[in-house]
## 1
Amino acid sequence: MRKKLSRAMTVFALSWLVSSAHAGVVISGTRVIYQAKEREVTVKLSNEGDAPALVQVWLDTGNPNAMPDESKVPFTLSPPLFRLDPKKGQSLRLIYTQEPLPQDKESLFWLNVLEVPPRAAASTTADDPNSLQLAFRSRIKLFFRPAGLPGNADEAAAKVSWKFVRKDNGAYALEATNPTPYHVTFSKIVANEGTTNWTSDKGGMVDPGASADFDIGNVAPLADVPAQVDYTFINDYGAGVTGKTLRDGTRK
């Protein structure tokens, strides 16, 4: 019965997924870092709303539509389903179950927190037959970090190299190449060439040992490599940290 209820909650939420900006249940942090040496990691939730909520939590490997019972991840997460009263908190226990994961780079997973508010009173529903009860889902990144990786995550953004590339549709992009074993998430990127700037406020993430493109529109750059790239990356604590890379490879 509990499993059927859990799946029904998830199907409902994925059908009516809305922004978590109005959710009462809040995650303490914007990302989770699981150091391999740790026996377990705790994630704290709090209900900042004025009503109790039924909360379901699960992990996935990158598919936002994956059901909790369909996602195969090397972690246990408890409790998976619980009631959270207003102005109260709940700690989630996350334990790595030791299934093999790459030891030369970070692995990425996603933590989902689904909040279902209490059903409106019968009298309220009768007064407004068109009322709709919405569920709220928050989804944040979980990075599994093996022991002994070279360097550290705070240095990774400065080691990313940049160049302009032309895509098949004729538009240009700024390509970022990450040679480190860490994921690097940028919230803002500004490429400078002479008096011209190309800005990406959307940002994005570059996987370990991989490249990612950031659109700069249809304006052709003057050189293959920008004179300077100013950026803001997100550190382990969810804070934005600024930096810059010059054409000659100098990092500041």
## 2
Amino acid sequence: MVFAQFIFLVIFISQFYDNAECISFFHFTQDPPPVRDIALMSRYIVHHSDWATLSYLGNQSFMDGMPMGRVYSVSDGTINNSSGVPYIMASPMDLSFQDVVKTKNCSLVLSLAQSDYCKKKSYDPEDPRCAQLTLTGKFVKLDKDDPEWNVAKTALWTRHPVMRKWHNLVPGHHWQFAKINIEHITLIDTFGGRKYPTIAEYFKATPTFNYWPKLRHSVITVKKNVIIDEEFIN
């Protein structure tokens, strides 16, 4: 039934948009673990986040020492493999990247507000039940000869496929990979205050990928830089 809907949608759209490019994505969703399992909840948030806010101290002359923030796409692994290490791809032309490479100290803030979970539960992004996580540590730029370079590339390019094209779309930006070396973890996932899973507990926790209660299909049609996004639920 779903496949028939997909074919019908492609045919229908093609009637109005010549030479349209159709791409089908399959998004898997999984409810968060119990709030009592703070390490697993932390790993869940990291793995199910597509983006995060990187906080750091500015190092530019006009913002020297001032707190700054920048949204980056993140990934800790392919959809069925979670390492717990958040990776970022950025250009050295990015002033935020320049600053955090120098200052190194940073925090990465991730929230389930970007997921369907909080929307389904009618949780406001500030509601503690709409879990949020702060990873504090050191920003580490990876070298091309570092084995982790390819790990980061695979993690990001499989979760953010458009990144593969950035080298051609914006040439000369010398895209690089980086990670956060986590030193402290702060979790808020329900009422009652903050929680602090240890680094050992965090990396010991093993997310499961053996149940997916909902499969969402997206069909994206591109025509002359106009994107039409259609979704239907299985």
## 3
Amino acid sequence: MAGLAELLREFRVAAGLTQEQLAERSELSVGAVATLETGRRRFPRPATLDALAEALGLSTTEAGVLREAAVRPSGESRSESLPADLEDFVGRADTLAQLTGVLSGAGRQFGTVIAVVSGMGGVGKTALAVRAAHSLAAAFPDGQIYLNLRAHSGGEPVDPLEALTRVLRALGTPAARIPADVSTASARLRSLVADRKLLLVLDDARSAEQIQPLLPGVGESVVLVTSRTRLLALAGARQFPWTSWTSRTH
């Protein structure tokens, strides 16, 4: 069976539409249509497929074929590496709700959603991020990856290439196939996650430069960062200053 990219292109041409016209009719961006037709994104959301099928005027059978082409193979892995959540977590529920709202709403946007939880050491940034990630597990069917960048944990912070290597390994890339330079490894990561819906938690980041190579380019994956600074160099990142928290365990 033809892949999603080929099918979408064939249906669009048969309908006599340009990418721009299809984007307008389906209320998607031109970039979103282009990444689907080039195969850089293979598994869009069902709502995206429904919008495309309607815009193309597909029959029920044709729409079914389009959806079938976008089903992820059962053998592809789901990554899970979050630390354990607290048994109970209370206080600052408003910030937690805002944070999870931004992350769970990522599918309504095109491009990477980044949230930065910032604050001084010891106020509970990691606990907040882990709680948010656990509560959103169902929203990210391809899994969640946690990486401690060790900016203030003693010893040397994790450098970008080491961080990329760990994330690529978590996503199932054999060690022998991981590039030895940051630029190529970053490109490999972007290609790998372009058609996945993944939550990447980058804990204790030192700077925007440390995490920039780890950011997905397109698709529905999101990045949750904790840092002692606000990392204002991350364009478009949503900021969540964190000053204190209250927890209770049983």
## 4
Amino acid sequence: MMTEQLAICGGKPVRDTYLPYGKQWIGDEDVEAVAQILRGDFLTTGPAIAQFEQEVAAYVGAAFAAGIGENDEVITTPMTFAASANCVLYQKGHPVFADIDPLTGNIDPETIEDLITPKTRTIIPVDYTGRPVEIDKIRQISQKYGLTIIEDAAHAYGASYQGVRLDYRPECPQTERFYERIVTLPPFPAMKDQDVQDVIEAVHKVIAHYLR
């Protein structure tokens, strides 16, 4: 039983220094790469974009898609950015929130199975703060009930679990580029591989138009 007064109520704080939400790693090579762009002719487009896309595509290896329809249920975690659930709402589905592991902040696989109904189609685990989820346990559940997995690896780009890198797993890893997140893939699960390619080509055409 806690007897000390909380810091917010005038008690002694647990920490004497500020606890940052996150901290980035920026080296001299990163600074020089940005400086080269600033010295060049292109700030938002140009050859650096194509190089970036090619290197990321080579690093990640593949794009995936999974279908979610109207009234389908998708089990995910409440400990995440809104996009993890919003992509389900965009498809007129229903996000269902499982509990989290208090030690990791990740979805607790032990709480998933009780939430599965005949309408459940997909599980969206999130590798929160770069810590990979227990995908082996989640995969067992998905295989038992015939569900797909769309893994939100936005915080864990390049991370690995049991020796396998997240973006090379058979699930559908998604990553984003938003503040502390890294690289964006289309967040609409109903998109097929050809749909993704069509969007990429359309964006490239628009960019090319403004470069003329």
